[in-house]
Amino acid sequence: MKNPTQWKALIPGLSLTIILAALAWFCGHRVPIVGAPVFGILFGMLVALFVNSPALREGTRFASKRLLQLSVVLLGFEMNMRNVLAVGSESLVVMAFTLTAAFLSAWAMQRVLRLDSVTATLIGVGTAICGGSAIAATAPVIGAKEDEIAHSISTIFLFNIAAVFIFPALGHLMNMGDQGFGVWAGTAVNDTSSVLAAGYAYSDAAGKLATIVKLTRTLMIVPITFVLALYTARTEGSSHFSFSKAFPWFVLGFVAASLLHTSGIVSPEISRSLTVSGKFLIVAAMAAIGLNTHIGKLLANGLKPILMGLVCWISLAATSLVVQYFLGLL
């Protein structure tokens, strides 16, 4: 529990974070292909070039960790558990293979490129599950630093934009049906906004199916973060493993929120408001991360994260197509 003095120390950093988040939120709605989270982290990094006051540190650190965790909980109000059954067993099989392909690619590329394991994990999770939301959920579990999160978010952002243009063009080139393209976009495009953009650019039917598949894929945050929490705790070298400390408890909030939404206990209007609040908090957390990120350090890794993201993305997209072909969905 923080005392009044500690809470007071949060005000400068939190205030600047909220201001930047509001600006990023506005820009994100104006330019949805970029998205508010990316604007948030960019604005934070730009301000950090000119403002580097110790007075901001406590507030920005609080926003980048606690607000990030709270945002994941609130995003649960967007999830409907019934959609898991609605997508059918075929798409769940495709999902299992694509998740495996993404993680194996991330593991292999991390070794080849000698990239740090935390950044590799975040890129793998962001590619496999749901872009920024998955990175937001995973980062506190594995103790990711601000620059590692920044690397991952910027990498995922690049391929989100590429997917919006490339996927519909390739779908038409391969004469894919609405079902095949919907499952492909839902399992192989990273961020939800990019899935919707690519899916509905192809057709309304493909867009609706892609959305359901993508939201179901988002649920994979729960088992993945749990496994990563256990792995991280065991590899820290502690002989006294504590399940209670290792478990990402905020993920339980995500599950509880999704169950409340599915059951109808929370009205659709309230669920939408809470979901929007969660998305805004993600933008705020990204702005805080940007404020704590040094561009010089971000550029030090060069093209390694981008190359890893590219390999993971191609592996994910190709696996989805191959599995669908053998299942007769194309």
Features:
330 residues, single chain, 17 helices, mainly alpha, globular
Describe the structure in your own words.
- The chain has about 325 residues and is mostly helical.
- It has helices at about 5-30, 35-50, 55-75, 80-85, 90-115, 115-130, 130-140, 145-175, 180-190, 190-200, 205-220, 220-235, 245, 250-265, 270-290, 295-300, 305-325.
- It is globular and about 60 Å long.
- It starts with a helix and ends with a helix.
List the helices and strands and how they pair.
Elements: H1 4-30, H2 36-50, H3 57-75, H4 82-86, H5 88-113, H6 117-130, H7 132-138, H8 146-173, H9 178-188, H10 192-202, H11 204-218, H12 221-235, H13 243-246, H14 249-263, H15 268-291, H16 295-300, H17 304-327
Helix pairs in contact: 1-2, 1-3, 1-15, 2-15, 3-14, 3-15, 5-6, 5-17, 6-7, 6-8, 6-17, 8-10, 8-17, 9-10, 9-11, 9-17, 10-11, 12-14
- Which ranges are low-confidence, i.e. pLDDT below 50, for 5 or more consecutive residues? none
Number of strands: 0
Helix content: over 70%
Largest beta sheet, briefly? none
Q: Please tell me the overall pLDDT.
A: 81
What fraction of residues sit in β-strands? Answer: under 5%
Order of helices and strands: HHHHHHHHHHHHHHHHH
Helix count, DSSP H or I runs of 4 or more residues:
17
**What's the end-to-end separation, in Å?**
55 Å
By secondary-structure content and strand pairing, the structural class works out as mainly alpha
Coarse morphology: globular
Tell me the Rg in angstroms: 19 Å
